[in-house]
C-alpha cells in the first residue's frame, strides 16, 4: 500500500504552495480539455484559495493569465489535487508531477478527481452539508442521498468534469469558475419549484465565498438508460430512418421548459432600442469573424440584412430566461420522453450575460442549426432530413407554446445567422474540415429569400463524436 503523505499545515498557505505547484500547473493546465486558453502559454499563475478536504487532498482555485501585456482577463479554475509519496500504478494516468522545491518537494502531485477515494469524499461532503474553509456544501433537505455509491469519472465532457455515482447521481464540477450563481444550479432549481419534470432537479451543490461567491458543483439525478439527441439523430441517419416524430416531441419538450422558465423568472418586454443593441452585437461578432475567416467576406452584405431587419423590430414577444446553448447534445431521451440538461449556457460568456433574459427564439435557432449539423455529418448529405426535422420541431413547439417561432421570421433568421457565424469561427479554429457545414448555412442565410444551398455542397468527413461549436 502506498502511503499518503499530507503536506505540513504551514504549506497550505497559497504563497508557499505556489513555489511547489507553479511550474507543474503551467505545463499541465494547457493540456486539459477544459482549459480555455488553448494555444496560449500560461504567463501568470496564482492561488486564490487552498482548502484541505482531508490529508493529502487539496481543493484549489487557481487564477491564470494567458498572454502577458494584453487586456485578456484572468481565468479562474477549480482543481482537486492529491499528494502522495509514491503514486500507485492505477493512478499513473492522473500524475501531474513531482515538485523540486517548496513544501511539496519530493512528493507526487496528481489529479485527485481520477481517484475513487477523493470522489467518495466529495459525495460524503454533499450528503452531510457543512463548511470546509471557504467551501459550503448544501443539499435539498427533502432528498436523502445514499452513501457508498461507486464513483466513475466521465471522459466525454470538455468544459467541465463529471462524476457518476452508482448510476444514480451525476456531479458536475465547473472547471472554469466565475463569480455569481451558475445558471446550471439556478435554472434547474427554479424549474423544479415550478413542477417541471423535463429537467433533473439539483439535489446537492457546493460553492465558495472566497475570493468571491461562486458555484463550484451540482449533484443531480443521473439517467443511465438515456441517450443524447445527437447520438439518436446520427443513428437515424445511418439507418435511413425518419426522425420527425422525435423532433416534434423535442419541440414540445423545449416549449414546455420555456413556459416553465417564463413562470419562474421575470419577463421583460423588448423595445426598439434593445433590438438595435442586439443587432449591433451580432454585427460586431460578424465583423470579428470576418477578420479571422476571410471566406465569410462574400456573404457579409447578405448576412447584414438579417441583422438590419432585427434592428427595426419594435416591441414583440417578451424576452425571458432561456437555455442559452440548446442543441442535440444538450437533450436526453429516456424511453419516449425528452429531458433538457446543461443550463450553464456558453461557458466562455460572462455569467451575468448568460443570466440575462433573451428571446426563446435563440434556443429554437440553436436546435435548428443542430439538425443541419447532423444531416451533414454523413454522406450523402440529406438536406430533406434536416428540413423535415426543423419543420417538425417548430410544429411541436407551436402546439405546446401556442405560438409558432416561424411566425417571427426576422427574429428567427437573425438568431440562426448569428449562431452560424459563431460556428464558422469555431470550426475555422478547431476543425477546419467541418467548416463547410456552417458555410453552407451562411450561403443560405445570406439570401433574402433563404433558398436552400446547392445540394452539391461537399459535406465534411464524418467524425466519431460531437465536440464542436454545438457545445458537446
Using only CA atoms, what is the Rg?
Answer: 23 Å
**Percentage of residues in helical conformation:** 25-40%
CATH fold field value of the largest domain: Aminoglycoside 3'-phosphotransferase, Chain: A, domain 2
Q: What is the architecture of the largest domain at the second tier of CATH?
A: Alpha-Beta Complex
Major sheet: 7 strands, antiparallel
Could you spell the SSE succession in H and E letters?
HEEEEEHEEEEEHEEEHHHHEEHHHHH
Q: What would the average pLDDT be, to the nearest integer?
A: 89
Structural class: alpha+beta
- Per DSSP E runs of 2 or more residues, the count of β-strands stands at 15
Number of helices: 12
Give the count of structural domains. 3
Low-confidence stretches: 449-469
Strand content: 15-25%
CATH domain class name of the largest domain: Alpha Beta
Describe it.
This protein has 3 domains: 9-114, no CATH class; 130-221, 2-Layer Sandwich (Phosphorylase Kinase, domain 1); 227-445, Aminoglycoside phosphotransferase (APH), C-terminal lobe (Aminoglycoside 3'-phosphotransferase, Chain: A, domain 2), CATH 3.90.1200.10. The strands form 3 sheets. It has a 7-stranded antiparallel β-sheet with strand order 6-7-11-12-10-9-8, with helices on one face. A 5-stranded antiparallel β-sheet has the order 1-2-3-5-4. It has a 3-stranded antiparallel β-sheet with strand order 13-14-15. The radius of gyration is 23 Å and the shape is globular. It is built from 12 helices and 15 strands. Strand 9 and strand 10 (169-174) form a beta hairpin. It is an alpha+beta fold. Mean pLDDT is 89; it is low at 449-469. The protein has helices at 14-28, 116-127, 183-193, 229-239, 244-264, 272-292, 300-311, 351-354, 361-375, 383-401, 409-430, 436-445; strands at residues 44-54, 57-65, 75-84, 95-97, 108-111, 130-132, 135-139, 151-153, 160-165, 169-174, 204-208, 214-221, 227-228, 331-334, 337-340. The two termini are 39 Å apart. The longest helix is centred in the C-terminal third of the chain and has 22 residues, at 409-430.
Amino acid at each position: 500500500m502506498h502511503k499518503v503523505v499530507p503536506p505540513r499545515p504551514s504549506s497550505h498557505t497559497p504563497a508557499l504552495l505556489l513555489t511547489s505547484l507553479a511550474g507543474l500547473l503551467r505545463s499541465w493546465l494547457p493540456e486539459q480539455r477544459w482549459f480555455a486558453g488553448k494555444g496560449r502559454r500560461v504567463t501568470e499563475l496564482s492561488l486564490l484559495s487552498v482548502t484541505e478536504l482531508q490529508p493529502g487532498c487539496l481543493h484549489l482555485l487557481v487564477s491564470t493569465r494567458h498572454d502577458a501585456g494584453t487586456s485578456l482577463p484572468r481565468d479562474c479554475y477549480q482543481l482537486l489535487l492529491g499528494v502522495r509519496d509514491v503514486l500507485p500504478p492505477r493512478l499513473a494516468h492522473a500524475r501531474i508531477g513531482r515538485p523540486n522545491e517548496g513544501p511539496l518537494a519530493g512528493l507526487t502531485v496528481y489529479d485527485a478527481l481520477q481517484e475513487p477515494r477523493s470522489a467518495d469524499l466529495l459525495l460524503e461532503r454533499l450528503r452531510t452539508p457543512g463548511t470546509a474553509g471557504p467551501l459550503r456544501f448544501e443539499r435539498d433537505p427533502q432528498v436523502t442521498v445514499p452513501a457508498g455509491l461507486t464513483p466513475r469519472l466521465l471522459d466525454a465532457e470538455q468544459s467541465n468534469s463529471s462524476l457518476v455515482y452508482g448510476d444514480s447521481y451525476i456531479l458536475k464540477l465547473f472547471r472554469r469558475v466565475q463569480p455569481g450563481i451558475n445558471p446550471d444550479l439556478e435554472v434547474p432549481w427554479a424549474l423544479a419549484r415550478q413542477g417541471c419534470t423535463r429537467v433533473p432537479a439539483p439535489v446537492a451543490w457546493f460553492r465558495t465565498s472566497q475570493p468571491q461567491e461562486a458555484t463550484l458543483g451540482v449533484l443531480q439525478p443521473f439517467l443511465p438508460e438515456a441517450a443524447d439527441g445527437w447520438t439518436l439523430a446520427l443513428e437515424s441517419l445511418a439507418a435511413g430512418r425518419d426522425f420527425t416524430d422525435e423532433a416534434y416531441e423535442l419541440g414540445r419538450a423545449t416549449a414546455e421548459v420555456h413556459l416553465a422558465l417564463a413562470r419562474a423568472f421575470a419577463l421583460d418586454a423588448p423595445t426598439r432600442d434593445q433590438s438595435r443593441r442586439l443587432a449591433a452585437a451580432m454585427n460586431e461578432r460578424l465583423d470579428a469573424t470576418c477578420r479571422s475567416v476571410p471566406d465569410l467576406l462574400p456573404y457579409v452584405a447578405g448576412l447584414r440584412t438579417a441583422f438590419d431587419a432585427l434592428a427595426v423590430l419594435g416591441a414583440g414577444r417578451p424576452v425571458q430566461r432561456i437555455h442559452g446553448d440548446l442543441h442535440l447534445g444538450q437533450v436526453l431521451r429516456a424511453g419516449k420522453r425528452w429531458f433538457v440538461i446543461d443550463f450553464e449556457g456558453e461557458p466562455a460568456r460572462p455569467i451575468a450575460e448568460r443570466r440575462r433574459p433573451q428571446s426563446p427564439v435563440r434556443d429554437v435557432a440553436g436546435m435548428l442549426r443542430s439538425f443541419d449539423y447532423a444531416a451533414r455529418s454523413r454522406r450523402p448529405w440529406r438536406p430533406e432530413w434536416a428540413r423535415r426535422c426543423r419543420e417538425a420541431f417548430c410544429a411541436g413547439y407551436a402546439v405546446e407554446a401556442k405560438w409558432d417561432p416561424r411566425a417571427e421570421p426576422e427574429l428567427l433568421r437573425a438568431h440562426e445567422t448569428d449562431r452560424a457565424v459563431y460556428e464558422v469561427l469555431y470550426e475555422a479554429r478547431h476543425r477546419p474540415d467541418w467548416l463547410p457545414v456552417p458555410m453552407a448555412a451562411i450561403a443560405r442565410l445570406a439570401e433574402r429569400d433563404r433558398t436552400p444551398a446547392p445540394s452539391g455542397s461537399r459535406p465534411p468527413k464524418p467524425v466519431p463524436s460531437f465536440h464542436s461549436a454545438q457545445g458537446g
